[in-house]
Amino acid sequence: MQRGVYFDAWFPRQHCYHPSLPPRRLRMIDDLVDYRATTLVWASLGGGSISLPYLEQEAFGAVDARARFYGFVNDSEFIAAAQQRGIKVFGIVFEAQGWEFPAEFSDGEDEILALNELRGAGHRDWIGLREFTQNRYPKLWKPFESYFPGGLLNSDGEPVTDLIEECCARDIHQTALHARWVECPDREHRCYYMDRNNPVWREYLKAVIRIQIDAGVDGVQLDETELPLGSLQYGGCFCKDCVKSFRAYLKALPENERSPHLTGVDLDTFHYGTWLLQQGYDFTGRLDSTPLYPEYYRFQCEAIRRHFGELATHARDYARSKGREVLVSGNFFNMDPQYLGLADDVDVIVTEMRNTTYRQPEWYRYVAGFAGDKDVIVVENPYGGVVPELVELLRVGRGHDLLRLSCYEAAAFGVNMAVPYGAWMGATIQDAFYAPHDVAAEVQGFLADNERLFDRRSRNEVAVVYSVESNRALIARQDISDNLRNARDESVRVPYRQVTEALAAAAVPFDVVIFPDARTAPDRITAESLRRYDTVLLPACTYLTAAQVAALHGYLDGGGRVVRTAGIGDNLAEDERAVLNNHPGMSVSEPADLSTLLPHGPQIELTATAGTAAVAANTARLADGSVAVHLVNYDYRPDDDEVRPLTGLDLRVRLPERLPVGTAYSCDGKVTPVDVRVDGRIHAVTLDALGPYAIVVLEGGAE
């Protein structure tokens, strides 16, 4: 498991200004060593969306003597220093961002006197991507042509004279879109939402990647990986390249797959935006009923997959041309299913969660199911969650157990929660998120010292199926608003979430199995992939592919037990549904009724003097054949500012093998042998106390 650090290193009590990260210091390396860090994300070289010369200054620029006095270094020097301590650094490519900043210049425009934060010096103008394209400041930046000899041509064969105008996303009225979530409302800077479907922007991003690799990064992290699908929060993208590409996508569809809306439409001249406006649709609402919206969504998902793969391949190929290998990652925001098709192209999955809460084991199990055999590093999100509150608690010396829980919870359920080191607090809060040093070092030390107790493979008896197509519309309705609020409409019931929340609340360990839609990601589900589970739960899986139907039949015919909630396979022929529904291994349950969801009963049972309503559990199958049971205690008491220990905790876990030797590893560093009482498949142990987190390891050997 990775031990990631969310390494923006933005300044306390100041805006987190995208895209340029603050200068790095050698003292930071000492902190990272204390944190036992393996990987830094959002860590370096973000300034490419200002200009390529600006990025080169971040990478290789001179550092004056006064800054050297305090150990300041440029980014290439910082990367090398981190590598000497065994820490991998990812360069961050802000794909969606195209920046313009107010600046103040000397009379000869050979010196920048102020940038972004102005001070009334010299004369004022703008500097950014537009000015870079036009060689506006020849005394400050190398010419555009030194990076692109002969310039760049757009998809119409025209020379590009303004990267902003050429490459920004545009709504249905052709208004240029802004990336509002990174623009600070009390500053004059402008961040345009760029469009990766535009081949010019992809060529520009490749130049950013090349400079990062030249600077020595271990990996390239592509942020805003869903570009331009994120434009849906602003009304979608109808730039010329999206419109042309969507037209080609529709033309390539077989006749029997074309929507009835296209009857009589001339696809040689079709313009989706104009066509929608003529029918009274503007893409800012009613998307469920907007003609051709499902086709538009699938088109964008396919474009995301294709263009992400293009950039990932370029990064690897360029590095190899320099005699190096680099890792590739991307921000798979909230692990939304649109990223499933990108997973094969990354080495490490990085995800920014949509809603950061104090208890979310069911989300982590989904993330682990999505990732499969790949490492995952999770970072928090300041919008729509608890991060601002937690930062205020930590500022006054409180909330340490809440921070501990944040890191331990992720590890317990199969992924890594990055330690925040000057992490992003959004565009409105003037602050950065730093973990208290001693607490972060303590947590990371426990995870590092007990690394062998974490494994992606589980011994969980229950699998919950997440069907992408069945959940798409429901979750879109529940997860309302843009990414400045990240609100959730709890009046919308999502059976998948109801099932997983009920299981997690009852300390029932489970895996999540993803059923893709087979168009935007490979469908690799087989009966063999399900057979290791005693029970497979299908929460309202109203859409099933042929491969998924075959896998379920094979699992059921082999003696497996399937429990469904609501309908199943509404897209199937009636006789196909009937065969599944009438199978003797199939039963029906309400989403939160554990008595019928779990025909074999719960795999884990917990009892304690003080009750166990605040505990969640997971299992891991370790390399030596032993099993680790991870227990997280969420019983944080604000008045006491600590997690209340559970005393006399009895743990009963059902396992297929006999493992009569037990050891408890507490997050306070204590390692205690425990007696294991084995009765058939039931293994029972008693813990004197459970603090925020403990791992009970059951292994074979002499009793």
Explain what the structure shows:
This protein has 703 residues and is of the alpha/beta class. It folds into three domains: 373 residues, TIM Barrel; 136 residues, 3-Layer(aba) Sandwich (Rossmann fold); 96 residues, Golgi alpha-mannosidase II (Immunoglobulin-like, Sandwich), CATH 2.60.40. 29% of the residues lie in helices and 22% in strands. The strands form eight sheets. It has a seven-stranded mixed β-sheet with strand order 11-10-5-3-1-15-16. The chain has a five-stranded parallel β-sheet with strand order 18-17-19-20-21, with helices on both faces. Strand 30 and strand 31 form a beta hairpin.
Itemize the secondary structure elements and their pairings.
Elements: E1 4-6, E2 24-25, H1 26-34, E3 39-44, H2 52-60, H3 65-69, E4 72-73, H4 75-84, E5 88-94, E6 97-105, E7 112-115, E8 123-128, H5 129-133, H6 163-167, E9 190-193, H7 199-214, E10 219-223, H8 240-252, H9 272-278, H10 293-321, E11 327-330, E12 349-352, H11 361-371, E13 376-379, H12 387-395, H13 400-412, E14 416-417, E15 419-423, E16 433-434, H14 437-449, E17 462-467, H15 468-478, H16 495-505, E18 510-515, H17 527-530, E19 535-539, H18 546-557, E20 561-565, H19 574-581, E21 586-588, H20 594-597, E22 604-607, E23 615-621, E24 627-633, E25 636-637, E26 642-643, E27 646-654, E28 661-666, E29 671-675, E30 677-679, E31 682-690, E32 693-699
Parallel strand pairs: 1-3, 1-15, 3-5, 5-10, 10-11, 12-13, 13-14, 17-18, 17-19, 19-20, 20-21
Antiparallel strand pairs: 2-4, 6-7, 6-8, 6-9, 15-16, 22-27, 23-24, 24-32, 25-26, 27-31, 28-29, 28-32, 30-31
